[in-house]
Write a structure and sequence with these properties.
The protein has 378 residues and is of the alpha/beta class. It folds into 2 domains: 162 residues, Rossmann fold, CATH 3.40.50.620; 176 residues, Hypothetical protein af1432. It contains 18 helices and 6 strands. Strand 5, helix 7 and strand 6 form a beta-alpha-beta unit. Helix 4 runs parallel beside helix 6 and helix 17 crosses helix 18. The structure holds fe (ii) ion (FE2) (2 copies).
Amino acid sequence: MNVAIFGGSFNPVHKEHINIAVSAINSLSLDKLIIMPSHSTPQKDGRLSASGNDRLEMCRKAFSGIACAEVSDYELKRGGISYSYLTCREFAKKYPDDKRYFIVGADMLANFDKWKYPEEVLKNVNLAACARENTESFDSARGKFNSHFSNPVAEVAYVGKKVSSTRIRALAALGEDVSSFTGEIIARYITDRGLYFMPEVAGVKKLLKPERWAHTVRVAVTAAEHCAEAGVSEKSAIIAAALHDCAKNLTADNELLKDFTPPDGVPESVMHQYSGAYVAEKHFGVSDKDILNAVRYHTSGRKNMFALEKLIYLSDMLEEGRTYDGVEYLREEFSRGLDYGMYAALDRQVKYLEATGRKIYPLTKEALNYYKEYKNDK
Ligand SMILES: [Fe+2]
Ligand SMILES: [Fe+2]
């Protein structure tokens, strides 16, 4: 019998997981596919997470239409960090005479030598890898793998659109519809159970015009998708993103701004960062200084910003709805690191302000000089 394990955090499970499962069944002529949600995955802490039971239940629902798929609670029951070498050891004991596969993404294959006890994994299973859109290609991943190991790797013939669980969590956090990524049943489960939802920012939507809210959602998705490399928690990134423009559509006489005193000499275009931080603190009850500062400096920037401030500044400027000239270059710089992104974004911002004859706010000028020196020092 051919049997494979398809592991992952499934936080949450989505359509791409189903596509990979179907493709693996066909490519590997599987008699059994074991879907195994992890208890906790190394390097994935700090993310919004559904409970193990909810992830398990969502997998059961999502894979219920695939006859040879079964969902296992083995790693969830074992607890602790879900190291694959332990799972594969048990897998070999349970299916000693069968052809055993372990399904990984191509990017996981490329970094397989960094796994804990990779030889032990390979002693017990054959790896089966699948490349997805915008990830490591199968051939390049196998090349990296082969520089360390000689075991054969099977290819799962699916190169599909990459769906990110992070995007789904960010959308669900803000109460947005995720059904196009998960299907109706899982989307309903997420909504009914309030999974990933952040009640602390639920009131932002009604303060904003629809297009401003749509932008806010895109900023939250961008921030969430970059928060791991920025070293900030997903929850802080989404809260700060949700709030960053919360005062953008408020007029000065709005009740929420009753006792707000603006700093001197702030241009109109910058004002909403200060009024936004005020509303975030007074109306939404945010006390986290990093989140408040991320809102407070998201338009001007400033020198020596904290990681969350830079993440929100850049996500605001580079969210996927932005199409201005040069945005792709800025995104590339952002992908090199926050400080490269900051310098490139501030440089563009100041040149744009100069070209349109607008005043450059002193904090922005200071920030540009700071990140220019920072870049030169590297
Ligand atoms: Fe803004
Ligand atoms: Fe914005």
